[in-house]
Amino acid sequence: MLNTIWYRKGPLTWLLWPLSWLFSVIVRYRYRQYQQHPQRSYRSTLPVIIVGNIGIGGNGKTPVVLALCHYLRTQGYTPAVISRGYGGQAVGPLAVNDDMDTSLCGDEPLLIRRRTGCPVVICRRRPQAVEFVQKGYPECDVIIADDGMQHYQLARDIEICVVDAERQFGNCFCLPAGPLREPLSRLMSVDRIVANGGPIDHYDADVMALTPDDWRYVGSGQLVESVSMPSHGVALAGIGHPPRFYQTLRQMGIGIDECIEIGDHGRLTHEQIQKYHDQIVLMTEKDALKYSHQAGPKWYYLPVSAQLPDAFYSSILQQLERVYVA
């Protein structure tokens, strides 16, 4: 119901508008306090790159984090990633390892750890995660924060805001009448805007394309042979914006028999796992992390990789160099 409200301006939108106005006043005040009193925020001895958004979920932050990790390593940097660990039970700080259960650390931190091999530390309080990295991984020379634009307890050197080009900013109102965590004016202060899937209105943004990789088996992680490639199946999407995954499948010529939406970071119930065990189930890489020991023989996942323009990487590299010089 909220999604319906957030992407149009109907009677309920205007009914909620006073609360949105109050919300925007509060978040503007918090940001102004961060700007005027930087000493109140924890300042790392390492450069901190925030990859976040001003809208509610499903914008494509994690692919940007993965791409940044890979790129910075090619440039001689040794990045570490910090995350709140949303969906996991751990309070932290906790270093994520390749065999950790997503119920403890959350799905996105585990995905980042497996795909990049970089140190990944989760903690509800991001300054503590940074301290953990600085003490436990002295070889790391840059920190990437997966989400956290609105967490001003942590000072940052570079801010990257990711926007879904399809949904953009909805009705442009802050919560609860709209999908924004901060007013649109906040975009004027970020270093780069990344538009996931195409250009966005009124803003100069780096356009990111998500390209599918090869299908893999959920149970083993092995590549699917060409003769076993799925042509149809049940689509499972426990992500912030499931239609993006469905659209990718259709563009690949894959038929969708049924859609299972379990909410962002959600899990199938035991009954659902039994129901779909012997069917062809197609899912995202993030979802697949939860079912490696419960997957049916025809459960597949589709990794994706972010393609970003050279200008984006060049800008980030130049800004990092300025931070080190300063």
UniProtKB/TrEMBL annotation:
Keyword Translocase appears in the UniProt entry: no
Q: Does the keyword Transport apply?
A: no
| Top EC category | transferase
Q: Which GO terms describe its molecular function?
A: lipid-A 4'-kinase activity
Query: What EC number(s) are associated with this protein in UniProt?
Result: 2.7.1.130
Keywords recorded for this protein, A-Z: ATP-binding, Kinase, Lipid A biosynthesis, Lipid biosynthesis, Lipid metabolism, Membrane, Nucleotide-binding, Transferase, Transmembrane, Transmembrane helix
Q: Name one Pfam family in it.
A: LpxK
Q: Which residues bind ATP?
A: 55-62
Chain segments annotated as transmembrane: 12-31
Catalytic reaction equation(s): a lipid A disaccharide + ATP = a lipid IVA + ADP + H(+)
Q: In which pathway does it act?
A: Glycolipid biosynthesis; lipid IV(A) biosynthesis; lipid IV(A) from (3R)-3-hydroxytetradecanoyl-[acyl-carrier-protein] and UDP-N-acetyl-alpha-D-glucosamine: step 6/6
Tell me the InterPro entries matching this sequence: LpxK (IPR003758), P-loop_NTPase (IPR027417)
Q: What does the record give as the function of this protein?
A: Transfers the gamma-phosphate of ATP to the 4'-position of a tetraacyldisaccharide 1-phosphate intermediate (termed DS-1-P) to form tetraacyldisaccharide 1,4'-bis-phosphate (lipid IVA).
Family, per entry: Belongs to the LpxK family.
Q: Which HAMAP family match?
A: LpxK
**Protein known as:** Tetraacyldisaccharide 4'-kinase
Q: From which organism does this entry originate? A: Celerinatantimonas yamalensis
